[in-house]
Amino acid sequence: MLESTLKKLLELPEFLRGRVVINEAERTVRAFEQSTEQERNEAVAAVMSHWRQNKTFGVLRGWRDELWPVYCRGTYIEDGLAETETEMRPVHVGYSVERSATGMLGVTRYGVHMTGYTLDPGAPHGMRIWVPRRAANKSTYPGMLDNTVAGGLMTGEDPFECIVREADEEASLPADIMRQRARFAGMLTYIYITDERAGGETGQIYPETQWVYDVELPLDVRPRPNDGEVAEFTLMTVDEVREELARGHFKPNCGLVLVDFFVRHGIITRDGEPDFDQIVERMHRYLPFPGPHSAYNASRAKPARP
Fold this sequence. Notes:
By secondary structure, this protein is α+β, with helices and mostly antiparallel strands. It is 29% helix and 25% strand.
């Protein structure tokens, strides 16, 4: 959490924000620790709504009315957060917060990304990739290039069902095609810091986890814009995608997903890329925060640390 956010949080009356405990030595903040999940949801919603109404933070101009989960390691009991090992239970949702506000809290964000491609023996590397261009009026990264389909994971939503939903909403891809052809390809864990293209305040720290999917599309299935978030889809060769990546035309985390796609499909290899091992490690960083990514991180032999 940025100090500017913490300052604004402390300026709010306690009846609105609840108790906030700061440990200067450990650089930690404890907030929204009401007894029940519903109370925690209401407390964080009241704070974010207040800031939105008063135009305190520019990032809230991108309000989406989507609730994203914030995970906890412990469990909540009647008088607060349990501390002892015997009271702990597996990682679970502590509360949910408006999507556009997650970056302000510095919590881990979760999403799904899918790369759609068609086989083409005459093209470099035997395939072409469907690349969308974000609409010019989007509040974040307008006009930049994306993965074929991507979206945020709302509280309680299954990742595969999320990618099926987003494929229909963003790309007009039928659910039956997705259910038959989409394949889970692993998870990416990383951290990046926002710039002006993200909308609102810059310098927000985003720990993120993405569930990644590939889908081989038949030649007669073409993604089409549906909900207004995509301006157009272009079927690009691998070489064209690599050129656009080198020019910085892709939204940053979408570029990361495509690099992972190239690694998994043997397009980027250890023989041809001197920084291969470091690149792969940085796409699977150790995130020291609770959440469903924890088990995936633990399954990797030597996770990279930020």
